[in-house]
Amino acid sequence: MPTYYFEFCGKDGFVDRSDGIDLADGALCEEAVKGAKDLMREGISEGLDRTGWVAQIYDAEGELVLRFRFSDLLRRE
Amino acid sequence: MTNPLLLHLEKRDALSPAERDIILEMSANQKVFPAKVDIVREGDNPTESCMLLSGFSARYHILADGKRQISAIHVPGDFVDLHSFLLARMDHSVAALTDCRVAMVPHTHLRELSQTQPHLTRLLWLSTLIDAAIHRRWIVTSGRLSAAGQLAHLICEMFCRLQVVEMVEEDSFRLPISQIELGDALGLSTVHINRTIRELRERDLIRWQNSQITIVNWTSLKRFAQFEPIYLNLEPERR
Fold first, then answer.
1. Fewest C-beta in 10 Å: which of A9, B44, B46, B65?
2. Picking from A23-27, A61-65, B102-106, B150-154, which range would have the lowest pLDDT averaged per residue?
3. pLDDT for the residue A26
4. Is A42 at the interface with chain B, CB within 8 A?
């Protein structure tokens, strides 16, 4: 299973870096989106708006393989 | 190595020599299931129940969209599908999380035991009641605790359950379960599980290296997790 490193970048230069996470082939996008939603949900429960955060995911060689804004995951009702 | 079901039951009540022999006889027919393989599947109508002798297994459901929810983690000494003796058709599956050695106990044997061994029958009933108590506690923690609280609670619970079957050394135990499986158990993404383990480490509550968990401060971890082990019924009593 490939290893990935997740960075979640908040406002004011705050960066939350994960340890290496082993994910099944092809599971990266789904896991990244689920992770971002978990973070937004946790933020809401603490009264924090994390929709401005950005996710950046690197592979084991340090190559950026995925980047998205949390707000990209939200749809307007 | 002492039979883990003996340890599990004798933590809660004394067994007579004859009852101990019956448990040991029940463990005679053994099978090995490699990691990731199903021990029993949803929809099955088993004629045997499975007593876990070594390894870790999990009860799980697969939803229509393919997502998996783990509803229980089993440790040695657990009779993982004792309820299939009376419920007949399995409403969930049980999979080996690691290589597992399992004693296969025929339902005919359980029926005979229930007719001739009332005390042992009550203790096996107790075992299913403890299962149910664990399920209730999981509902409470998943509904009301933060991700870190849920994981801390699970660590406290596993520590106590593994202590019963002599799989704890001082403050340390092995939990050979992947972050993906922990995510499936707690309803969280693997990414969030990874962050949550880090949070518990940074709070200086645990150390977690590979599969080895060391509890740095039991009192603080318990308080953080709001963990009270009463639901595990760890006190010996005449039952």
1. B65
2. A23-27
3. 87
4. yes
Tell me the whole-structure pTM to 2 decimals. 0.94
Residues 6+ apart with CB under 8 A from B208: B197, B200, B201, B214
* Overall domain count for chain B: 2
Instruction: For residue A21, give its domain range.
Output: 3-73
CB contact under 8 A, B195 and A18: yes
Please state the domain count of chain A: 1
Q: Choose among B146, B178, B194: nearest Cβ to A19.
A: B194
C-beta atoms of A42 and B147 within 8 A: yes
Does one domain contain both B84 and B142?
no
Q: CA separation (Å) from B47 to B5, B38, B83, B84?
A: 20, 16, 11, 8
pLDDT in tens, B52-90: 999 999 999 999 999 999 999 999 999 999 988 998 899
> Pick from A23, A42, A45: which is nearest to B190 by CB?
A23
